[in-house]
Prior knowledge:
- By secondary structure, the protein is mostly beta strands.
- It has one domain (3-106): Immunoglobulin-like (Sandwich).
- It is built from two helices and nine strands, in the order E-E-E-H-E-E-E-E-E-E-H.
- The strands form two sheets. It has a five-stranded mixed β-sheet, with no helix packed on it. It has a four-stranded mixed β-sheet with strand order 5-6-3-9, with no helix packed on it.
Amino acid sequence: MTCKEDKHYFEKAPGSNLDYQFDWSAWLGRDKLKAVTFNVDQGLTVGSQSHTDLVVTVWLSGGQLYMTYQVRCTVETEGGRRDRRTAIMAIRTLSESAASRVYHIPPDPDLYGPPPVEHYA
Length: 121
């Protein structure tokens, strides 16, 4: 699992139909998800999608071996916030259980302020 800026990398086998989650809980704080939209590159197929107050789940299938696709998850919250995160889906030969299927969205610094400064004696 690799996170780079707002990009996350998933892997799947070309024939698999699996659920992938975007976990927004750390980013949301006390806010809740209200609406979600997925957009994917041509060649990858969105099956169904759903969300709880904190986590979005999307079922993805298709993709051509050794290709990569963008999976864009746009959310709107009850508090009126809107954000989008993009995951990169790499199509590889692997077992279904080997695929990393959860993207933990990092906390929103505006909700929590700057990180605490550690002092060393």
